[in-house]
Design goal:
This protein folds into three domains: 169 residues, no CATH class; 57 residues, no CATH class; 201 residues, no CATH class. 64% of the residues lie in helices and 4% in strands. Strand 2 and strand 3 form a beta hairpin. Helix 2 runs parallel beside helix 6. With 490 residues, the protein is mainly alpha-helical. The strands form three sheets. It has a two-stranded antiparallel sheet. A two-stranded antiparallel ribbon has the order 2-3. The protein has a two-stranded antiparallel ribbon with strand order 4-5. It is built from 22 helices and six strands.
Length: 490
Amino acid sequence: MTVWIPTAAATAEIIFFPLATAVAVIALRRSVLQARQKWLLGAAMVFSFLAKIALARMGHNFDVYCYRVISNILSQGGSAYQRADIYHYGPIWGWIVSGFGHLAGPGGEEVFHRGELSYPGAGEHFHMWIAAFLAMIDVLIGVAIGRAYSWIGAMVFVLSPIGLLISGFHSQFDNVAVLMGLLAWLLIREGKPKPVALTVSAACLGISLIVRHVLFLFPIWLVFWKPLGKLRYRILYAAVAYGLFAGSFLPWLGDPALRAAIMSNVFGYKSFYGNSLLGYVIGLILPLTSLDWYLRWIPVVGGLQAIWMALMVATGVALVRKGAPELYLFYLMLVYASSPALYGQYCAIPMVAAAAFYPAWESWAFIAAGTLANLANKNNIGLFFFQAVFPAEIVIRGRPYHHLSDLFQNSAFMFFLVASQFCAGALFLKQWRQVKKPTARSPLRIEMWKAAALIAVGGLPTLATGATGTAAEPGDAQTDQPERETITRV
């Protein structure tokens, strides 16, 4: 690749911010909301945007450093897949971070230390650019929720602590893929779309897969969704989405080394898995290593992953036959609730569904559990507070914890994270039941108690299995990588 990519990306990103702002302002002005409601939603969006930039100023984790590494490689005319050990996606995100690297200039002075190795920091301005971009993506998602579902749901989304922590400090980009998937869905949501809408929707879904393949099973759901049109159109729709994803790697397939890196680290990538509700429940019946051995005849994926994919496809078919009206929201809830691998950043995936279904107490429970998990996560902002307040080492059952944050990371983090999966699953089941038979709401006090009980029950699998180890993040499968450490600024 050539060195013009960072410059072109930087130019596009400069244009993006005023364009996205204009879209949000025009959408608010043309909405049917009352003037007071428009001002409240607009103020919430501005607050959300500024808060995420402020959180980015407090420091960054190893993932932001990885973004800087990829940005530097592209600025020198290289390819992100030269470091496929830390980059497991299509090329779009690499292009985006290269543009922000160009805008931010050289990295900062902060340094990661691990043993005898040092890892230079990403630079404060670089992180702030990325957080601003992700915050604006969240604003656009809020606009889409406000127009398609409700303005209160949009408020819930932009003000959710999950979004503040993940888009701000953690700066993970799942929301970009979720936004493109949401746009794809809204274009065909009413059924029987016109050819232009069908084509644009398929392209949006393909771009979503290129950014991050969160929705890689959703096109299969749509193949069974008859409102999309005749069977050949549904198959063509899925083919376009998958084709764009596969085709995005063509420029690098001529290089044997890069081709091998892409096949190994993108298409054949395997993170540690089993640190999830599905993994813990199956682990109570059969060790995951035994499951993989029994299902070793399945190519590419492991046994737990195969079961998960089969579960996702079968449930999608059942939802289609039941006539579920919001397939995309159901997909976001299910892909998170049943995921074989789990990490704090994944809480951003079902947030659109939690916001759209905000009246449900299961939605409150999910947001509460996801927030607590990310606060306890040493790779998020939790480390900043716990290290400052509890700097001394403590020993529990003979095991030293250098900071109270270590204790939270090894116990509370996984407890609340798995509980958030359980809550997302409960929300999914409730909406499933309401497709044909809406349920009445209980008094507020009772619903709050139900939400608390749901979180407590949801975390029990981690206690039953003794699952108090740190969850594995996708990049951690590489044994030569440093753990996801965090740099904080005071």
